[in-house]
Design goal:
- Chains A, B: It comes from Leuconostoc citreum (strain KM20).
- Chains A, B: GO terms for molecular function: DNA-binding transcription factor activity; transcription cis-regulatory region binding.
- Chains A, B: Keywords: DNA-binding, Repressor, Sugar transport, Transcription, Transcription regulation, Transport.
- The structure is a homodimer of 328-residue chains.
- Chain A has helices spanning 2-8, 12-19, 26-39, 45-52, 68-83, 97-109, 151-164, 180-195, 211-221, 238-250, 284-300, and strands at residues 57-62, 87-92, 114-117, 133-136, 146-149, 169-175, 199-205, 223-224, 227-228, 232-235, 260-265, 279-281, 310-313, 316-318.
- The first copy, chain A, is of the alpha/beta class and 328 residues long.
- Chain A folds into 3 domains: 2-43, no CATH class; 57-148 and 284-313, Rossmann fold; 151-282, Response regulator (Rossmann fold).
- Chain A starts with a helix and ends in a 10-residue tail after the last strand.
- Chains A and B meet through helix 4, helix 5, strand 2, helix 6 and helix 10 of A and helix 4, helix 5, strand 2, helix 6 and helix 10 of B.
């Protein structure tokens, strides 16, 4: 560090400020960077972390990165954290409470800078009160901010869209049990139907790896002469909506002309791919951005808050190939 | 640490061994864990990393986690690393050389335990020789192991499968430019066709965000009376194969009865979802497992090797809805 200061012709304090990410004059910064390059100096992040007693790692705990929604969310989360100078440690919990707790304990041990979690276990007691945390989808405790999409409005929007597009016999499909945010989406959908005198039914597949077979049997039982008994379908998840769509096509049922389908998430399977399924879009990029901002606020503040904010982000309808085009 | 030793009734050295992950007698381990719990002692990973001069972080650099293949790979990679006691730092490079270099430099600075990278930039010179590294898909330098799927055999397998299923007019589709592993897949496919006197053509969409429009125009230009000019289609990527399938369906072309389609990757969009597209499956779990083993070998060895191994993993054909069922 002394060598860098000498070569750069600046004080040791300026070097320290630069390395620790504190504000440095642009001219000083350029001199330091030139010196660092010349000397091939690598500041030791571990030594820095020990000195400041915090690292620049943020832990992201999600059920699995292997779904379009979570992979898109992880992508934007990592890039948002990167903009603040933080690295993202990805943890897949498979919604297993023991694994969630293990990851939280790891975060405590590693003195990470923060935790972002989408956890359905009761982790409030084991989170160190000194680590900033933001919850997604489900609150951890009133102490920590929550960022969530407007799931109720999303269910309403799906029903309204199907009504506008001429559907008369609506159907909600999912896999049992419907809980947490899924039940909020279901409630929004059904409340709109009830209020607007729309016929609405429910079909839930069994909670098994072969649940898709239940969808198939249901479709076959409710199809006569290529005519399916329902004309407007909503699911709380793109996965189920997409399964249902493919199964209807296999029965030669015309989607969207006789049956229309709307899913939930509208996450991008590929970054640039056109959305094939009509769906309620969660604002993935805004969720990531807001979450990182809420985390950074806690990092910057010296005083933990007793009552944290809940941020509800708006959803939108995303037109795909499974609903008719709206006539202007 | 002294308190833990006192409460557990073991030596300070045993505590140190336990914390540093060295072998400890099971009985001693139980005593230490009970004492740690009783005292609510959190070993400071940062202090440990400084002392041993290495952390337990492994950096994974991929173009983007937001594709089925990379999200499935990241999922298995994190769980495999976890089994060895390592945490995974996820880095999305968007195939941007500057970002790849930034992440490598970050890894050098943070003294990470290792790097796993799928990088198309020339990063060999900037990787610290002291950091274990494993390359996926494309070699970094002869010094570092490479783990790759058998892409050539995958292309051959697709052609053979289409031939067996009765296709006569084969078509390779992709997006320009076809390079790296994609061109190896293409070559395997075409070599099989040439050797077996099968007619084979190529259509490449332009390298633009709207490339799907090129697919659509090609399909419309080559369709007469719901009859598409080709009956066996292979793509080096599930993304393009899936786009093509949906576009053929929109033209009311019967897949798989008149046109059959095979993609590449067969990655799971959702962990438990049935595969709808017939495709050549990369052994994602084996890629993750092998990569982590090759990384761990380097970590455990004191001597860097001059010539590292290349591991080529076998691919398989995965039956979906876009090829006819093979008659036994």
């Amino acid at each position: 560090m002394n060598d860098v200061a000498r070569v750069a012709g600046v004080s040791r304090g300026s070097i320290s400020n630069y390395i620790n990410g504190r504000r440095t004059k642009p001219a000083t910064q350029l001199k330091i960077e030139a010196a660092i390059e010349q000397l091939n100096y690598v500041p030791n992040a571990t030594a820095r972390a020990l000195k400041t007693n915090k690292s620049n790692y943020v832990v992201l705990i999600i059920p699995t990165v292997n779904t379009p929604f979570f992979s898109e969310l992880s992508y934007h989360m990592q890039l948002s954290l990167n903009q603040f100078g933080y690295k993202m440690i990805l943890c897949n919990s498979n919604s297993n409470p023991e694994d969630e707790i293990d990851y939280i304990q790891m975060a405590n041990m590693q003195k990470v800078a923060g935790i972002i979690t989408m956890s359905y276990s009761d982790i409030a007691d084991i989170v160190s009160p000194n680590i900033p945390l933001v919850a997604i989808e489900k609150p951890v405790s009133p102490q920590f901010p929550l960022v969530v999409s407007d799931n109720y409005a999303g269910g309403q929007l799906a029903a309204k869209q199907l009504q506008t597009l001429g559907a008369k016999k609506l159907l909600f499909i999912s896999k049992a049990p419907v809980k947490n945010i899924s039940s909020i989406r279901e409630k929004g959908f059904k409340d709109f139907c009830t209020k607007n005198n729309l016929s609405v039914s429910t079909f839930l597949a069994s909670d098994s790896p072969d649940f898709i077979n239940d969808f198939e049997a249901f479709i076959i039982n409710h199809t006569h002469n290529h005519d399916f008994a329902y004309d407007g379908i909503f699911s709380d998840a793109d996965e189920y909506a997409s399964d249902f769509w493919h199964l209807l096509m296999q029965q030669h049922i015309d989607v969207p002309n006789t049956v229309q389908i709307i899913g939930f998430d509208a996450a991008h399977v590929y970054k640039r791919q056109k959305i094939f399924l009509s769906s309620i879009r969660q604002p993935v990029e805004a969720i990531a951005k807001t979450t990182v901002e809420k985390l950074y606020e806690q990092m910057a503040s010296q005083h933990p808050v007793s009552q944290a904010t809940i941020t509800t982000l708006p959803v939108t309808f995303q037109q795909g190939f499974t609903t008719k085009k709206v006539r202007p």
